[in-house]
Amino acid sequence: MIQVLMYIGITILTVLVMEFVAWSAHKYLMHGWLWIWHEDHHKPHHEKEGFFEKNDLFFLVFAIPSALSYIVGLATPQRWLLFVGIGISIYGLIYFLIHDVYIHQRFKWFRQLDSRYSRAILRAHGSHHAKTHKEDGESFGLLIVHPKYFKKRSEWNEKAKSE
Ligand SMILES: [Zn+2]
Ligand SMILES: [Zn+2]
Hints:
Elements: H1 2-30, H2 35-38, H3 57-75, H4 80-103, H5 116-129, H6 153-162
Helix pairs in contact: 1-4, 3-4
The site of one zinc ion has 5 residues, from helix 5.
């Protein structure tokens, strides 16, 4: 029983840690020397061709530590690593569903989703995309959103007008 709780804990912790890993990878690598793979994600929609972006390669990059955790976790007594692998997979799935499907609408699913949190995520990532250059971006994370993006719709519209 205690072991089950421990494994669930490790999985949840990994999902949370992945938000910070993704944030720092986005800020320091993707907007750094890996900009060559990330640049096309910041291009305006009409300049894109085809379904895939070079940016999608990052899903493969993050699949490597995940796969290694599965393999080592299953093949050695270090069983906890299996749950690190599962945590990374879950974060990847959440990232795909929120970032690629909900925000960028690569599939037409759950577009009607509307809550304070979902609006905050949209605004935060929208302000990330407002910059099309490598430098001085903001909102590099996905799930953890600056409180300023949680303002009520009316307050937000006022702010947008005054800018
Ligand atoms: Zn970016
Ligand atoms: Zn994006």
